[in-house]
């Protein structure tokens, strides 16, 4: 069994859903050494998240942002956690809905994902800043 782990820092992204698959793949070229295994990507933040979805049509990512803003609105009267700005509490809720980690299969040294799938960084803050990721790959 082989194990590889790296931490990387993403530059600040504007609020929205951003494809980061190629950044992940470049950060851990050791994927090529794994015939059968898994890749885990974990984000070390509570106001951003990760998910896997459509990688071709950017309108899907725009629609994700619009929909999440509708189901988790800013300035809800019942929010108590408001000292860090109107986008902060909704960002925490959105991050919990989507999750802080994705796990993907590795087959013959490559991510075994669908043709139209990619890893999204889901930035839920207006000015979230840099985001730290832990990337772990393991297998035979």
From TrEMBL:
InterPro entries: UPF0047_YjbQ-like, YjbQ-like_sf. It comes from the Bacteria. Pfam families: YjbQ. Gene3D superfamilies: YjbQ-like. Transmembrane segments: none annotated. Belongs to the UPF0047 family. NCBIfam families: TIGR00149_YjbQ (TIGR00149). This is Secondary thiamine-phosphate synthase enzyme YjbQ. The lineage of its organism: Bacteria, Pseudomonadati, Bacteroidota, Cytophagia, Cytophagales.
């Amino acid at each position: 069994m082989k194990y590889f782990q790296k931490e990387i820092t993403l530059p600040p992204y504007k609020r929205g859903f951003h494809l980061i698959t190629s950044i992940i793949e470049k950060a851990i070229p050791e994927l090529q050494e794994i015939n059968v295994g898994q890749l885990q990507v974990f984000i070390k933040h509570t106001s951003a998240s990760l998910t896997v979805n459509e990688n071709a049509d950017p309108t899907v990512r725009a629609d994700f942002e619009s929909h999440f803003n509708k189901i988790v609105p800013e300035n809800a009267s019942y929010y108590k956690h408001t000292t860090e700005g109107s986008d902060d509490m909704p960002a925490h809720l959105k991050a919990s809905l989507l999750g802080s980690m994705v796990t993907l299969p590795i087959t013959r040294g490559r991510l075994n994902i669908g043709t139209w799938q990619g890893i999204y960084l889901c930035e839920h803050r207006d000015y979230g800043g840099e985001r730290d990721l832990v990337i772990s790959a393991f297998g035979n």
